[in-house]
């Protein structure tokens, strides 16, 4: 990595090099401070231990002792150099904390000198460019008026055949008495200057430089005459203006002299202010030269403004960099870094920086490539699987019962799982786009957290493997292979994913996999562990994955009991413990979430956690009633399902909108929403509330039993389960948005880590 000093020297404007801040000199002053600190450190005796050192450093630079803390470290004074100058000068006064440090005093004196130099140069150039800009603006207005006049003359009709001149406009030469007098005074002044030179030339005739001086004065005289000929004052539409084409090359000089001499011969009567002899023709060629000059002036002005912008940015960055170095030399960051390296990294600074300043993992283009590759493979395999299922007659109301009872739950489980994971990737993308600090809220490591591209890669790769293997399985079934021969394939697929999840090697996102297992452990044992944001967020996800958990329960029972060998898919449904376990799985996620609310109430003492607990209790009762109705479809159980589900839905909707999303605030500046919103389009919030309401009513399928035509009812159940996952996906975004705006630590940007040691009063 190139040092800033090299970048600074490579980007500065060479012509203004001396006006830039002397960064090297400031670095030398910083080195003096470092040397002084090292001498003081070596000269003092090492007393106390690590706790004393850290406490003393903190007391020196923080507000642990309010009485001894100064409100400021420096005081900057502004003063004027003199009454005639409007340039401000800045002078820094050090307060008591650094007043006795000679190196710091010298540093700020040098810093003041550089700041005043940069400020004065910038203001001078800024004033110069502003004046040039105003002048060019006036020049452009005159050029525009002349162009319009020439255009109007051209539109009146073509020039006469006798005239061989180009299209031109006539401007009246201003020959009023004052202008003539001014011109005569100028000529008289030039003649007087010449006479004085002639008189003085006699005195200096004997000096060796007299000849050179005489020649220079005569050249100035001739140049003055030439310049007087190269400009003419004309009056165009009530404005006096002078057209001056600089004599930049011999051809232009000769043509200008010829033109002006001819113009003088023709307009000799202008001295008498005659009405017919004072016309000056301005043709297209003159306007073209004037336009070219103005265009070049604009280009140079723009280039100069770019240089001035570079000058400002580089100097500001240099001051920021050098002040950071000063801060590291004297303040708390350097002390903490030193103590950390000494006590926790075995004096290895590189090792310490891995903890203090962890480097972010770079995103690879290979990830994006494989996302596209596996997405294409997944789509192709899915199309092939659908065609094969249609040919074999699967997923219809009278389909193969063995396949739908044993293989379809595998596809349903993985589809719901990775749909949820895909929506989590979409959440990460939206959180990053709206600058929601989800990493801090979830307390994720910045070097190990999953990016949205990583999530998409996992989803596409996994679903390609799932659909590919099930496509092979269905193809074998269609070719006439018995289920006894091919039924082990879905089980191996499930075993493969379990092995990958538990793999102890540092491959396939090990840190994220083990973090997931840790969170699942905390959820299962929720009353025993302190609940953090990631724990109850993950538990909420499980509440939307009850169908997936029930599929997992059945598949585990089917393969663990060996039913796949005998093809007895009803074995698990006949056993008592499986039916009891089905009840448990249906309301277990709500139970875990309720226990988390109870633990948070115990730790924090807020009654709102008890109210939230009631929401999950109502959901448990509704889920239990639904499972009971599926086993015994009676009118009594149906009425209980309707009552419990309606109460739970109203409870959940209120908590979604008011508590989790923070919406429906009637006195808000955004009616029916909240004061602070991350999305600019307010209608999105109302649409999301309506969609959340509709998707919360998916349980009505239990009452109406609607299906999609002749499609198997299991497909309809999968579709409804997917809608609940989609609802949870949009819930996640607004839940974290509200957490980010209102509850994420009240302006905390770093975590508050509890300390192990506490002072105990001796009387206790």
UniProtKB/TrEMBL annotation:
Annotated region (Disordered), positions in chain: 151-173
Keywords (A to Z) from UniProt: Membrane, Phosphate transport, Transmembrane, Transmembrane helix, Transport
UniProt xrefs under Pfam families: EXS (PF03124), SPX (PF03105)
Domain SPX: from-to ranges: 2-340
Superkingdom as given in the UniProt entry: Eukaryota
TM region positions: 366-387, 407-431, 452-476, 488-509, 635-654, 683-704
Gene Ontology cellular-component annotations: endomembrane system; membrane
Subcellular location: Endomembrane system
BP GO annotations: cellular response to phosphate starvation; phosphate ion transport
InterPro entries tied to this protein: EXS_C, PHO1, PHO1_SPX, SPX_dom
Domain spans labelled EXS: 573-764
Membrane topology of the entry: Multi-pass membrane protein
Stated family: Belongs to the SYG1 (TC 2.A.94) family.
Protein name: Phosphate transporter
Organism whose genome encodes this protein: Sesamum angolense
């Amino acid at each position: 990595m190139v040092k800033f000093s090299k970048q600074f020297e490579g980007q500065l404007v060479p012509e203004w090099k001396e006006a830039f801040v002397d960064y090297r000199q400031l670095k030398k002053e910083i080195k003096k401070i470092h040397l002084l600190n090292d001498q003081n450190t070596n000269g003092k005796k090492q007393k106390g231990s690590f706790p004393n050192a850290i406490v003393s450093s903190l007391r020196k630079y923080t507000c642990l002792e309010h009485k001894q803390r100064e409100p400021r470290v420096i005081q900057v004074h502004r003063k004027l150099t003199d009454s005639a100058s409007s340039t401000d000068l800045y002078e820094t006064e050090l307060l008591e904390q650094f007043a006795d440090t000679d190196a710091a005093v010298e540093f700020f004196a040098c810093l003041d000198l550089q700041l005043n130099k940069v400020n004065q140069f910038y203001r001078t150039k800024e004033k110069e460019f502003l004046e040039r800009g105003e002048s060019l603006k006036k020049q452009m207005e005159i050029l525009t008026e002349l162009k319009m006049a020439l255009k109007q003359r051209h539109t009146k009709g073509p020039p006469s055949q006798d005239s061989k001149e180009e299209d031109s406009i006539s401007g009246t030469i201003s020959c009023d008495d004052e202008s003539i007098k001014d011109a005569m005074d100028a000529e008289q002044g030039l003649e007087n200057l010449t006479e004085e030179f002639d008189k003085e030339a006699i005195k200096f005739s004997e000096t060796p430089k007299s000849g050179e001086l005489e020649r220079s004065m005569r050249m100035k005289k001739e140049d003055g005459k030439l310049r007087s000929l190269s400009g003419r004052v004309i009056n165009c539409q009530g404005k006096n203006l002078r057209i001056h084409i600089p004599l930049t090359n011999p051809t232009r000089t000769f043509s200008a002299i010829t033109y002006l001499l001819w113009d003088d011969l023709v307009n000799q009567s202008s001295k008498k202010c005659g009405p017919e002899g004072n016309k000056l023709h301005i043709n297209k060629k003159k306007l073209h030269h004037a336009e070219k000059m103005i265009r070049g002036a604009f280009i140079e002005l723009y280039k100069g403004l770019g240089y001035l912008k570079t000058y400002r940015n580089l100097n500001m960055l240099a001051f920021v960099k050098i002040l950071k170095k000063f801060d590291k030399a004297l303040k708390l960051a350097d002390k903490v870094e030193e103590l950390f390296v000494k006590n926790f990294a075995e004096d290895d600074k590189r090792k310490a920086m891995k903890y203090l300043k962890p480097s972010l993992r770079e995103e690879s283009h290979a990830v994006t490539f494989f996302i596209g590759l596996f997405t294409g493979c997944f789509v192709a395999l899915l199309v092939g699987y659908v065609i094969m299922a249609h040919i074999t007659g699967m997923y219809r109301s009278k389909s193969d019962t063995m396949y739908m009872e044993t293989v379809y739950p595998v596809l349903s489980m993985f589809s719901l799982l990775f749909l949820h994971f895909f929506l989590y990737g979409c959440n990460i993308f939206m959180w990053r786009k709206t600058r929601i600090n989800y990493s801090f809220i979830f307390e994720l490591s910045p070097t190990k957290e999953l990016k949205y591209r990583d999530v998409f890669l996992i989803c596409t790769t996994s679903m390609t493997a799932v659909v590919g293997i099930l496509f092979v399985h269905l193809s074998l079934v269609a070719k006439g292979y018995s289920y006894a021969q091919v039924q082990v394939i879905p089980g191996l697929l499930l075993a493969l994913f379990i092995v990958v999840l538990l793999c102890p090697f540092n491959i396939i996102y090990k840190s994220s996999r083990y973090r997931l297992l840790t969170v699942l452990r905390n959820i299962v044992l929720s009353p025993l562990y302190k609940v953090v944001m990631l724990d109850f967020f993950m538990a909420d996800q499980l509440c939307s994955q009850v169908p997936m958990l029930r599929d997992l329960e059945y598949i585990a029972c089917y393969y663990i009991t060996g039913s796949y060998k005998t093809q007895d898919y009803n074995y698990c449904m006949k056993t008592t413990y499986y039916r009891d376990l089905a009840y448990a799985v249906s309301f277990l996620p709500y139970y875990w979430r309720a226990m988390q609310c109870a633990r948070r109430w115990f730790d924090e003492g807020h009654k709102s956690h008890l109210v939230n607990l009631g929401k999950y209790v109502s959901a448990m009762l509704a889920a239990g009633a639904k499972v009971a109705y599926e086993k015994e479809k009676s009118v009594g159980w149906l009425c209980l399902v309707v009552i419990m589900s309606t109460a739970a839905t109203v409870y959940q909707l209120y908590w979604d909108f008011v508590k989790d999303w923070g919406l429906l605030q009637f006195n808000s500046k955004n009616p029916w929403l909240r004061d602070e919103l991350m999305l600019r389009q307010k209608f999105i919030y109302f649409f999301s509330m309506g969609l959340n309401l509709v998707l919360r009513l998916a349980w009505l399928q239990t009452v109406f039993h609607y299906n999609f035509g002749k499609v198997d009812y299991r497909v309809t159940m999968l579709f409804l389960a997917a809608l609940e996952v989609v609802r949870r996906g949009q819930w996640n975004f607004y839940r974290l948005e509200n957490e980010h705006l209102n509850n994420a630590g009240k302006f905390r940007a770093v975590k508050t880590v509890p300390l192990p040691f506490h002072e105990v009063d001796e009387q206790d």
